[in-house]
Amino acid sequence: MDGDGGGAGIGARVLRKEDARHLAGRGQFTADLRFPGMQDVAFLRSPVAHARVGARRASGDVLFLDDLTGVADIVTRSSIPGYKLAPWPVMARDRVRYVGEIVAMAVAANRAAAEDLAEQAEVEFEPLPPVASCDAGRAEGAALLHPEWGDNLFLHSRFDSGIEAVAASAPVKVELDITCARQVMHPMEGKGVVAYWDHRAGMLVVHTSTQVPHLIRSGLAEVLGIPQAQVRVAAPDVGGGFGYKCLLQPEEILVSWLALTRKAAFRWIEDRREHLVAGANARQHHYTLTAYANEQGRLLGLDAQIEVDTGAYSVWPFTAVLEAAQAGGNLPGPYDFRAYRAEVFSVATNKPPFAPYRGVARPGVCFAIELTIDAIAKAVGREACDVRAENLVPGSAMPYVNVTNKHYDSGDYPASLATVREQIGLDAFRAGPARDEKGRYLGIGFATYTEQSAHNTKVFAAWGLPLVPGYDQAHVKLTPDGALEIRAGIHTIGQGLETTLAQIGHSMTGVPFENIRVTLGDTATTPYSTGAYASRGIVMSGGAVSRAGEVLAGRIKAIAAHLLQTEPDAIEFREGRIHAGNASLDYADVGRAWYLRPEQLPEQVNTAGLEVTEGYKPATDNGVFSYASHAAKIAVDPETGIVEILDYVIAEDCGRMVNPMIVEGQTYGGAAQGVGTALFEESPYDDQGQPLASTLIDYILPGPTEIPAFRISHTETLSPHTAHGIKGVGEGGAIAPPAVIVNAINDALATLGARITQIPATPERILAAIAEAQA
Amino acid sequence: MKPAAFDYARAATIPEAVAAMRDGARPLAGGQSLGPMLNLRLARPGKLVDIKRAEGMRGVALSASTARLGAALTHAEIEDRRVEDVTRGLLPHVARGIAYRAVRNRGTLGGSLCHADPAADWVTTMTGLGATMIAQGPAGERAIAAENFMLGAFTNALAEDEMLAAVEIPRLSPAARWGYAKINRKTGEFAMAIGLVILDGPWARVVAGAVEAPPALLPRAAAALLAGETSDLDAELAERLPHLSPADRKLRAVSLRRAIAMLSEAR
Ligand SMILES: Cc1cc2nc3c(=O)[nH]c(=O)nc-3n(C[C@H](O)[C@H](O)[C@H](O)COP(=O)(O)OP(=O)(O)OC[C@H]3O[C@@H](n4cnc5c(N)ncnc54)[C@H](O)[C@@H]3O)c2cc1C
Fold first, then answer.
1. Is the Cβ–Cβ distance between A423 and A650 less than 8 Å?
2. CA A480 from chain center: how many Å?
């Protein structure tokens, strides 16, 4: 790692390579692509939550399921015992199961004309009783979404380490009922797909806004019944994914089917209304918790019932029950206790199929456990921050295996909490006034969490997924003119991998950063990766680039040593050149020798040349755990219920930072989404299963004025298990804000006796809590 | 979310626009409310007549007692004081709190008033100022008092073939004071409650806005303000806003108390 720590290598704050095109408005997203003769697709979507679908009539180029040939349902298997299959037809067969489910596909010269056709289609819906909540789904005699199941449970899972002894003897018992709203993920760029038939290659080409191009290739080939060799999936620029774009979507299949069967170009670009209605698929949990503690507030045991409002079908490949597995498995969080029982119900409801959103279940579980810690502190009459610190896994216990068998590899959780305690000024705050000059109540809240990142084969296999990640691949190549090409099958969806992978390539080979080009996300030009999800990219693809780069560096050294008439060990990469003592070479000299002047090569030269493909996975499949503590100071207006975030501090540790600016960007973005979860975002449904937030007037996103200026500090505890000690950081920012902000609200409202246990903490909910406390 | 097909014409004059409306065309101003309705296909006009550049729609005429503002002036022009302010800063203050700058660059005074969203800012402001709406139809101009212009949520007093040409705003005196308290969850969102109070010599007005209906004038509160007394705001709101829940009425009372408190702030 001769270039390490240098100007642009691992650890450097370099500007992002991708920014030049994005800042100039020259990014190329799916909707920017044009192909000759391309037609637009619009979908007719179900207006009702649950119905039998009767007669269908349409004129013009409108297709129903029966009009498709050779398309299979999306069937997402899981090896988890008790999991029930819910085949998902790409358009309605005999039933619709949520508002927004696709019923018909209209094709026309442009989107407006396609929408005209779609709205003229006539479909008979014979209403069935809707299941609009977990309660409704679990009720005696509930209508069944999938009658063959006999109930509405995708899965009923249990974990029990033994809770009875603690329950019988603990002096302090705290009960909480906690609710998280349903959300949409709302990437800035919606979903979109353009597909055409490449006559020369004899191939279906699919440009789709996805995080997981190689997975989509496998999925499309399977559902369309064609060989994978006949499918190329190439993701263009992607404007955020957050999990929404790591799924095989019916729209992707349908547009691809059109291109495959008609041998022409078709596209569908999701609009906001489609996203808000058919994409309301995340975050909705309900927790019934009983926590046991001693008189000092030491958490002894936790008994949890968790319901996940799972929607109608099982998404491919992550299944309907990944959320449940993560919720039950991650609820204990960063805390040190050994008695834990959890029962998780994955309830099928007449809503869009649940998908893993940035952080997966962890914003919910962090909210639940952190409110529990504060409630325990309150019950024992102590400062919540102190009680939290005493319950965290101490740094001296690392590595630590927790009650649900999470292997916390490294770090000092209490130290990060102490940092934010200091930065937010807790002690001075406690000594100061409880209200500000406007009469608003002030409060401070805390949360600490772990972010499992880059967990791999065994963990995903245990979650029962049909596709399990293994070795991620990267390809590196020195070009004849001495530049470095890096290719990886992962995709960059805003997280800056074109930059960070180049930094790793630079550290490993010494090739100047500006001469490194990164190509991602195209199954025709990149080696295999399962893609960008689960905070894995920089560990997995970064690790693969590191290994491939290391091998390539050895080959460069061998040729350079021959050219400089020295030994490979004497070669050093520095300042963009190749040195041996006082002599030096340009990378182009080595490239030229291999490709164009082979007479200059050593006799025993490695015939694999200056191209290397390597695979990588960390030494453990258990994942490596980044962590952070967040703290916020807020003001609650008791007359309007409006919350202002006055200060927000974050102390995070994601191991070795490849580029601290990108870590900060990821953290800002995640935390901004977390503010949305905490205070604004909600997709409510009425009891008929009708979504009540179908435009951005009703689905409120935080804007720049609602997002505080997050103050971030870093520590770098290297992971013992990964290349360079790197851990993932893509999800973490989104995990803590709901817990932090609501703990702060409850701190502020404590003197009024009011408490919030539901997110988002809207003005209405805060006013209702105050009114209830005063009644 | 693409509109159903429609024809589009741009009117050069107000009579031309009125003629087009008689033929069934719907007026298009900034498109900031109509655009979304078209996209959602909630509005499906066969024809739009663009009135923004019709002669006189963007004019400002000042007299000793009023300013007459063309209905197609934008929120941003008022915010930036490119339109002379006769309200001691009230109009620019209100304009600055409407939506986001991109919306304010296009959205118009007249479009907002005609759209008659109960939570919109101009509807309450013009009622408070006692402004006069100048409508123009085939038979010429007609004046409508602001408090009679909005008939209900999303309904105005214009006839099918009438358009709003201008708004006549009474000048406030140099001694006038006002308070405008808009309560909303997020910068740029429509109001959850608006309280507006204007005190100008012997004249006072108190208005509760964003009440899911036309703004409510509160004469007892205004009289009390003039007399330097306190009134039973909650009782008057209960009388005037029986359709709101107690919690919703309370929020309007909060906005009014905050508006009253603003009267004493220096400006
Ligand atoms: C994101 C967003 C946030 C917003 N927030 C706020 C807010 O906080 N406060 C607020 O007050 N408003 C808000 N608005 C609405 C905004 O102020 C609009 O500009 C306004 O409602 C409509 O004005 P317009 O000129 O765009 O009218 P258009 O959209 O063009 O027209 C609106 C309606 O009025 C009719 N019309 C327009 N002009 C005339 C005329 N001269 N005579 C007769 N009929 C006419 C049209 O036919 C149409 O029915 C917001 C809008 C958006 C998109």
1. no
2. 38
Judge contact between B117 and B153, C-beta under 8 A.
Answer: yes
| Architecture of the domain spanning B60-170 | 2-Layer Sandwich (3.30)
Judged on CB neighbours under 10 Å (0-12, 13-18, 19+), A436 is: middle
Does the beta-carbon distance from A703 to B187 stay under 8 Å?
A: yes
Position of tokens 């398309």? Answer: A71
What are the start-end ranges of the H helices in A225-361? Answer: 250-262, 272-278, 322-330
Strands B216-217 and A102-108: unpaired
Q: Give per-10-residue mean pLDDT for chain A (775 aa).
A: 64 96 96 97 98 97 97 96 96 98 98 97 98 98 97 97 97 98 97 98 98 98 98 98 97 98 98 96 98 98 98 97 95 98 98 97 98 98 98 97 95 98 98 97 98 92 89 97 98 96 98 98 97 94 98 98 97 97 97 97 95 96 95 98 98 97 97 98 98 96 96 97 96 97 98 98 98 94
Contacts 24+ apart (CB under 8 A), A216-219: A216/A248, A216/A252, A217/A523, A218/A467, A219/A74, A219/A248, A219/A316, A219/A317
* Cβ contacts from A onto B, under 8 A: 51
Both A481 and A391 in a single domain?
Answer: no
For the B7-50 domain, the top CATH level (class) is alpha beta
Q: Are A675 and A706 in contact (CB under 8 A)?
A: yes
Do A685 and A731 sit in the same domain of this protein?
yes
Residue A116 with chain B: CB contacts under 8 Å: 4-5
Domain boundaries, chain B: 7-50, 60-170, 177-262
In a domain, A690, yes or no: yes
Q: pTM to 2 decimals?
A: 0.97
CATH at A736: 3.30.365.10
A→B contacts (Cβ < 8 Å), by residue, are 110-112, 115-116, 119, 271-274, 639-640, 642, 680, 695, 697, 700, 702-703, 705-706, 762-764, 767-768, 771
β pairing state of A266-269 and A39-45: parallel
Q: Which helix (H) or strand (E) holds A629?
A: strand A624-636
Q: Which residue of B has its CA nearest to A761?
A: B185
The CATH code belonging to domain B177-262 is 3.30.390.50
For residues A28 and A26, what is the distance between their CA atoms, to the nearest angstrom?
6
What residue ranges line ligand 1, CB within 6 angstroms?
B 26-34, 51, 71, 98-99, 103, 106-108, 110-112, 114-115, 120-122, 158, 163-164, 188, 190
Question: Peptide bond preceding A332: is omega within 30 degrees of 0, i.e. cis?
Answer: no
CA–centroid distance, residue B104 to ligand 1 (Å): 10
Q: What is the Cα–Cα distance from A247 to A227, expressed in whole angstroms?
A: 20
Q: Give A-chain residues touching B3 at CB under 8 angstroms.
A: 112
A560, A580 contact by CB (below 8 A)? yes
pLDDT, tens digit (0-9, with 9 covering 90-100), for B111-140: 999 999 999 999 999 999 999 999 999 999
- At A159, the amino acid letter reads F
User: Is the ipTM beyond the 0.90 threshold?
Assistant: yes
**Minimal-distance CA residue of chain B relative to A680:** B185
- Picking from B168, B147, B113, B169, the residue whose alpha carbon sits closest to that of residue B222 is B147
Query: Phi and psi for A318 in degrees, rounded to 5?
Result: -85, -5
Tell me the C-alpha distance between A650 and A626, whole Å.
Answer: 13
* Shortest CA gap B1–chain A (Å): 7
| Residue to probe by mutation, ligand 1, list B8, B10, B13, B33, most atoms within 8 Å of CB | B33
| Token pair belonging to A331 | 């609820």
Phi, psi of B240 (to 5 degrees): -80, -30
| Tokens representing residue B180 in the block | 């405008």
For ligand 1, what atom is nearest to the CA of residue B114? 34
Q: Give the closest residue (by CA) to ligand 1 atom 2.
A: B99
